[in-house]
Write a structure and sequence with these properties.
With 171 residues, this protein is mainly alpha-helical. Helix content is 58%, strand content 5%.
Length: 171
């Protein structure tokens, strides 16, 4: 991969990441406070654990790519980040700091081969799409928790039974 190809791929993926991040923040904020320990199965993460994983993993992934290494551990949830709204706020702040780091990486940094925990070695830029897909996957899981928890499911890729962005846009 050339540095020019990597920069093009980064530009495309960064736009996708930024669009998805708005939806991710909305989904996390939609998790009801009343039952954050809800889990659909004993093996599943609780709603609060899943919301934190979704937020923290994406921030960690992007900072790792920008830093050129996956050596650091994912951040632990701070004690003061104890609700879905607090996680959404933490995510907004930290993803807002991570994205500029990714967007200003040089072509040489983007083509550098990174090692993901000894399991995958690829150019740094390719890990951006992995971060995107990981976030979409876990966000989809979290959406399936919201209604059984008594919450309102936000629109993700079109309307939901609880939210129709096209009706709101026409008002």
């Amino acid at each position: 991969m050339t540095t020019e190809e990597a920069q093009f791929l980064r530009a495309v993926t960064a736009r996708q990441l930024e669009a998805e991040q708005k939806t991710t923040e909305k989904v996390i904020a939609a998790v009801p406070d009343a039952n954050t320990e809800y889990r659909p199965d004993p093996k599943a993460k609780s709603a609060l654990e899943l919301a934190w994983h979704l937020a923290a993993a994406e921030v960690w992934f992007l900072n790792s790519v920008a830093g050129g290494s996956f050596e650091a551990a994912q951040p632990q949830r701070p004690d003061n980040v104890a609700s879905p709204a607090a996680i959404a706020s933490w995510y907004h702040e930290h993803i807002g700091a991570a994205m500029p780091r990714v967007k200003t990486m040089s072509g040489e940094q983007l083509v550098k081969i990174l090692d993901f925990r000894g399991r995958l070695q690829q150019p740094a830029v390719t890990f951006l799409s992995i971060a995107l897909h990981h976030a979409i996957h876990h966000r989809g899981e979290l959406v399936t928790y919201i209604r059984p928890m008594g919450g309102r499911v936000p629109a993700v890729y079109g309307r939901s039974a609880d939210e129709d962005p096209w009706v709101a846009a026409q008002s």
